[in-house]
Amino acid sequence: MDSGAAVAGAGAGARAAEKLCRRCKVSYDPSGNTRLSCRFHPSLFVCRRHDDQKRYYELRDGDPPYAAKFYDCCGAEDPDAPGCTTDLHRSYDDDD
Question: Which letter does DSSP use for residue 91 in this model?
């Protein structure tokens, strides 16, 4: 085997060891997984009024109450907002 094929084979082995995180959808190496590796929202992005009447969101005049869209965990209104919680990555292969 030539050195180019050996390097390509080593790269394929490294990629095979990576997993996909089911929380943040990022590929990761399990050997480097720490409690700060994964950044995610533990709750869903919802479209409803806050039950506790907190004003995490800004409604404009004439907006219906259901116009409020936010993450239920932290109140972030942007669906692409960075996660509010960090923890270990969890792959689809891991037990719940």
Answer: B
